[in-house]
Amino acid sequence: MKLAEALQERADLNRKIEELRRRLGNVILVQEGEKPVEDPTALLEELNAALERLEYLMAAINLTNCRTKAGGMTLTALIARKDALTIRLSAYRDLVYSAGQNTNRARGTEIRVKAALSAADLQKIVDRTAKEIRELDNLLQETNWKTKLME
């Protein structure tokens, strides 16, 4: 199994687990003398099987990410870099928006507010950061499809 396939299965399992939790919540309590619309025991067994498979995949994915290198870094380090850059991108986009706001003045005698940082300079950083994120994501995706899952 390729790493990318394991990641897809992990995402599917997470969705399935949430669905099973919801379904169990709907059938855990029933009026005395009534039967639930679904068998809670069977749902619980299905939930436990999904959780066991998820645990296995998470361990194998983490092991693979720690041992696989791309672009001179482990996949774990690349993922951390991408996550940090994504947070930076969001913060800088907020700054660009704020710096680009023009304060309306009714009269010329009112206090003028101007940005302490250049919106244009901040936008250049946003553009570079977005490009780096795209490149990291492409490298990660390519590596995920080429890498065999380690067990």
Description of the structure:
By secondary structure, the chain is mostly helical. The protein has two domains: 1-67; 69-151. The chain is built from four helices and two strands; from the N terminus they run H-H-E-E-H-H. The protein has a two-stranded antiparallel sheet with strand order 1-2. The N and C termini lie close together (10 Å).
Which descriptors would you attach to this protein?
2 strands; 3% strand; mainly alpha; 2 domains; 151 residues
Strand-residue proportion: under 5%
Give the structural class: mainly alpha
Q: With helices defined by DSSP (H or I, 4 residues minimum), what is the helix count?
A: 4
Number of E-type strands: 2
What oligomeric state do these chains adopt?
Answer: single chain
Strand order, main sheet: write it out.
1-2
Main β sheet profile = 2 strands, antiparallel
Radius of gyration: 25 Å
Ends apart, CA distance between termini: 10 Å
